[in-house]
Amino acid sequence: MTDILVAGETLVDMLPGAGETLRDVDGFTHRPGGAPATVAVGLSRLGVPPRFWTRLGDDPFGDFLRETLDEAGVPGGFSRRVEGNTTLAVVSPPDADGRRFRFYGSRDATFGFEPDAVPTDALVSVSWVHLGGVALTHPAGRRAMRTLAAAAAERGCTVSFDVNYRPDLVPEGERDAVMEAIRDVLADADVAFASDEDAAAAGLSPHEGDALARDLVEFGPHTAVVTLGAAGAVAASSEAAPWGEAAARHGGFPVEAVDATGAGDAFTAGLITRLAASAGDAGDADDPPDLDDALAFANATAALSVQGYGGMTALPDREAVEAFLAERE
Fold first, then answer.
1. Which of 17, 19, 232, 237 is 20 to 30 A (C-alpha) from 97?
2. How many domains does the chain contain in total?
3. Which domain holds residue 102?
């Protein structure tokens, strides 16, 4: 039985064809997406299939996503089909100015997690819970994710949280409520993930890199990880972490990137796989890694993912990651 529960949205990424701006592209290709869904599939590919609490629209895109999760080995017991059209995340061309994602479709169907439906009963048999931050932009999703994070923390589960702040999804007048929810979930979290851009947009810290990781630990998590794109990632942890007080940096792996969509989610799946193993929660508990090892494994997972097209469809399996690392040793 799986030890990990992932919670958050599943949606469709619309990847652009050739063109300098969205108005110029010659068409789009649809791929499965959503940060938590990509993390869930990434964990499954790495040999740790999680339970996944998500919402799927009752449209053909919802059918497509359910089939994708089934094929990836992600159990469907906690996913719910709801009335409404699936949210589409339209990705801008790589060199276009401005927003990377623009969202279309039903926010209620994709992000409107119901507080009464929080799978607290599942916490009896899981030891790691991962939440995505995008659902916090929806009023119902905020209540649901805060309830899940608090219940998981009270139960003694390791809680990880990806800030993943998307200001375009925050309704007018609700920014303060979203910021409060982010801080509440960080207070219940053990491991926090963020990019420099996420943290700056959410107003969490004026710093970048190592200093940002240390600042995030002050919000409550014992470990904070900051992703730096092609420059790799940094992490900081306090004495409360199972792997002890530490600071780590990994510069990533130079590869020829085809599509960076979902690279951060691939990284998150890789890091959870290694850190859960070190905590004895999942994976190879007999060979506990430290933060340096975990960052290397996570960056290798991300490096392999950007060499294919589509964030979820390009996720590597465990054997590929280990072979990639072995080649570079």
1. 232
2. 1
3. 4-328
